[in-house]
Specification:
The complex is a heterotrimer of chains A (about 100), B (about 130) and C (about 180).
Chain A: H1 2-22, H2 26-50, H3 56-80
Helix pairs in contact in A: 1-2, 2-3
Chain B: H1 2-30, H2 34-60, E1 62-64, E2 73-75, H3 80-110, E3 121-122
Antiparallel strand pairs in B: 1-2
Chain C: H1 13-35, H2 41-60, H3 64-100, E1 109-114, H4 120-132, E2 136-142, E3 145-150, H5 153-160, H6 163-172
Antiparallel strand pairs in C: 1-3, 2-3
Helix pairs in contact in C: 1-2, 1-3, 3-4, 3-6, 4-6
The chains are: A mainly alpha (about 100), B mainly alpha (about 130), C mainly alpha (about 180).
């Protein structure tokens, strides 16, 4: 039962890896890596059940937190080229990137 | 009887969720440009993760001692703490998935990533978005 | 290191007190529930440190007002979320059918929809709901307009019909 779902998740991960290497833009790659992260969370959760160790759920939770922060940070960096944007200078919310 | 019904439901949810993950990945392979690929990428994030985690939640089940030790309400494995963690995980994924997708799409739009197919019908006023590069 | 500007809905120091206590109580309950360890001083101390850090960060970011909106909006989400969930399931099946169709019948388009919500939180919930529904992605939220990329005409019509907008509005201002 878990093995079937694990197989589907692993197939998805392989396709995401292909997509991440194919590109063509950096945003396609980030999108693929983002979905790869979601699949990793599901993989950890399913593995916990498959191997009879539901404590793995804590790892899945931590991974979900890291995955979110990571993808937002990479998206922000690819937009601004800088993670600590000066909010006082751009307080109006307009795009500093021409 | 109720146990086999639960078991069948868990099967359906797990396999269905995995199927949606694969369909989403196939869609990301087939769709022509970045913006349409984001639509396919929401499939594993919403129903794929949702069905798999819901299936695991049903499997771990509940164990509520409503009527004392001997007569508790018990469904599935009776691992309430794990069910709560799965629920938190699902809510967290549903809350953060659109946020990171939006951050990514907004960054791509600000950097002027364009459609590489026939230009879509553009109803918006700022359609003449300058290409920064 | 920069301080974020205060949000327009910033509260005075007097009003934030009960909100911070509510935040501490919520965070403590979550920590105790998930750790499941109640007799280890080190673990409990680390929990207290984490809670203090989160409260400090919330104050520093001037985002206590959003926490208030969260506490009042929370119960109303209970009626909104099932509807949103059903919409997501329907949209998932539509997008899955499009992907599996050999002809790939997509007609991407860009639409601008009004965002009548008053509070930042209401706008974020509306934009997030649009992104969460497969087939539509919110591109840019600026002023009172939201730029939405839709995969098909049906998905675009679904957003333009405005049912989600009405529901988020109703949740924001019940009466």
């Amino acid at each position: 039962m878990y093995a079937a779902a694990l197989l589907g998740v692993l197939v998805t991960m392989v396709i995401e890896l292909i997509l991440a290497s194919r590109g063509p833009t950096v945003f396609d790659r980030i999108l693929a890596v983002n979905t790869f992260g979601t699949m990793t969370i599901l993989l950890i959760a399913l593995c916990g059940y498959h191997f009879g160790r539901p404590d793995f759920m804590d790892l899945a939770l931590i991974y979900a937190l890291l995955n979110f922060i990571g993808s937002v940070a990479v998206a922000k960096f690819s937009r601004f080229g800088n993670l600590a944007r000066d909010h006082r200078r751009h307080a109006s919310g307009e795009d500093p990137n021409p | 009887m109720i146990d086999s019904l639960l078991h069948a439901l868990v099967w359906i949810l797990l396999v269905g969720g995995a199927a949606f993950c694969v369909i989403g990945a196939v869609g990301m392979l087939r769709l022509p440009d970045f913006y349409t690929r984001t639509h396919a990428a929401t499939l594993p994030d919403t129903l794929g993760a949702g069905m798999i985690l819901l299936g695991l939640m049903l499997q771990s089940g509940l164990n509520l001692p409503l009527l004392g030790e001997g007569a508790s309400l018990r469904i599935g494995d009776g691992n309430t703490l794990v069910t709560l963690k799965l629920l938190t995980l699902l809510l967290f994924l549903l809350a953060t998935g659109p946020a990171s997708t939006h951050a990514l799409v907004k960054a791509a739009y600000a950097r002027g990533i364009r459609w590489n197919q026939a230009s879509p019908q553009d109803d918006s006023s700022d359609s003449k978005h300058a290409d920064p590069d | 290191m920069y301080d974020l500007p205060p949000s327009p809905q910033s509260l005075s120091g007097k009003e934030t007190g009960p909100l911070l206590i509510a935040l501490v109580v919520t965070l403590s309950a979550l920590w105790l529930l998930w750790s499941g360890i109640y007799d280890n001083t080190l673990i409990l101390g680390l929990g207290a440190c984490s809670i203090a850090f989160v409260v400090w960060m919330t104050r520093r970011m001037h985002r206590v007002a959003e926490a208030k909106a969260g506490y009042t909006l929370g119960p109303r989400l209970i009626t909104y979320l099932p509807w949103l969930g059903w919409e997501i399931v329907k949209a998932n099946f539509q997008v899955a059918r499009i992907i599996l169709d050999p002809k790939l019948p997509i007609s991407p388009r860009l639409i601008r929809v009004p965002v009548p919500q008053q509070t930042d939180l209401g706008r974020v919930i509306y934009a997030n709901s649009i992104t969460l529904t497969p087939g539509t992605v919110s591109l840019d939220l600026r002023g009172d307009g939201l730029l939405v990329h839709a995969l098909t005409h049906e998905a675009a019509e679904g957003v333009l019909s405005g049912e989600m907008e009405r529901r988020v509005n109703r949740m924001e201002r019940p009466s």
